UniProtKB/TrEMBL annotation:
Transmembrane segments: none annotated. This is SET domain-containing protein. Gene3D superfamilies: 1.10.220.160, 6.10.140.2220, SET domain. It comes from Pholiota conissans. It comes from the Eukaryota. GO terms for cellular component: nucleus.
Length: 342
């Protein structure tokens, strides 16, 4: 682990625990109230779909607390506005979000709105087709009643291989269709996974992209960035133990993978978009191609899903209120070790 850091030295070490995995161990007695870590942002996070209009996608400000029903500043205007999946409490937050999502400094971050719009479009198609039986769900029926006793690493590998081989991508047909239905949790988890994949792709395209090593200069104490893919992969993979304890989640995860494959397959080609200039077209197509490549097998989806349980934190409207409402969740990579701290 080698995060970008600023400020005072860490007051702890990351060491193996006696019961598996790693945790944060204090180097000395730390006075109560000491700020020991400031993360610039989660490596990957999601605001619940039902709250996307009410929670600022940048600062997480909750509209209700400001006396509003929802925020009105959208990530994108025009054709992709309503489906952009992100709203902001102010123009300043929108600008900060777009600046952070620049793959190259000075280049537009509008590519994210187009990918979000493709996601929303497939959800809309799913809602319209609710009356139809779940096409493709037949390949998952054998997982409906599995017990934890049959779940092994070999079982998981076979299930995911079948999932990969059974996917029919949209570009293989004249008109892409999605006939399976995702519940709210699956939709939110799909958005979480998509966020993680896109962050990995940005790192591959430009290893010095702004969002990768940004540290909050205004924060106090030991300050770290959100981290990189290698930092996220350093977290413990809990896939087997999680599915063994919750076998019903395996078909959910496979359905999420197949949905994202379909989203990627339906991303528009450059010549079909009139809202992008030549450089934006090239960047968007590079991201879209890499996303399809990353989804050609379940490897990266499984890596993200396997590190979700046990390593994420809830995003709440009021941190210290017992009546606080959970608005989403995020993986603060370097803070996750505090789940196992001493």
């Amino acid at each position: 682990m080698n995060p970008s850091t600023v400020g005072s030295a860490a007051l702890y070490d990351i060491l193996p625990t006696s019961y598996g995995g790693r945790g944060a161990y204090a180097r000395q007695t730390i006075p109560e109230g000491t700020l020991v870590l400031s993360c610039a942002a989660p490596y990957v996070h999601v605001i619940f779909w039902k709250f996307r209009r009410e929670v600022c996608a940048w600062c997480f400000e909750y509209a209700f607390e400001s006396g509003k029903n929802k925020w009105s500043v959208r990530l994108a205007e025009g054709a992709h506005g309503e489906g952009s999946g992100a709203w902001f409490c102010s123009q300043e937050c929108r600008d900060a979000y777009l600046c952070e999502h620049q793959v190259f400094e000075g280049q537009s971050g509008n590519w994210r709105a187009e990918i979000n719009a493709s996601f929303a479009k497939l959800l809309s198609a799913m809602a319209k087709d609710e009356k139809h039986p779940n096409a493709g769900s037949g390949t998952l029926t054998y997982l409906d009643d599995i017990s934890k006793d049959v779940v092994s690493q070999e079982f998981l590998e076979k299930a995911w291989t079948l999932a990969k081989d059974s996917v029919i991508d949209g570009h293989q047909k004249r008109k892409a269709e999605w006939m399976e239905e995702l519940n709210e949790f699956e939709i939110d988890t799909a958005r979480f996974v998509l966020e993680g994949l896109l962050r990995k792709i940005i790192e591959e395209i430009n290893p010095v992209a702004p969002l990768l090593d940004h540290v909050d200069d205004a924060a106090l104490g030991y300050r770290v960035s959100a981290g990189r893919w290698a930092d996220f992969m350093a977290l413990q993979d809990n896939e087997l133990s999680f599915i063994r304890a919750n076998p019903y989640m395996l078909p959910c995860q496979i359905r999420i993978y197949r949905f994202l494959r379909n989203v990627a397959a339906n991303l528009s080609k450059p010549h079909r978009s009139r809202e992008r200039d030549e450089k934006e077209n090239a960047l968007f197509q590079q991201i879209a191609d890499r996303l399809r490549e990353h989804l050609s097998s379940p490897e990266y989806v499984r890596a993200l899903l396997g590190r979700d349980p046990g390593n994420v934190f809830g995003i709440w409207d009021m941190a210290t209120d017992d009546g606080s409402e959970m608005l989403g969740w995020g993986a603060f990579v370097f803070a996750s070790y505090y789940n196992h701290s001493t």
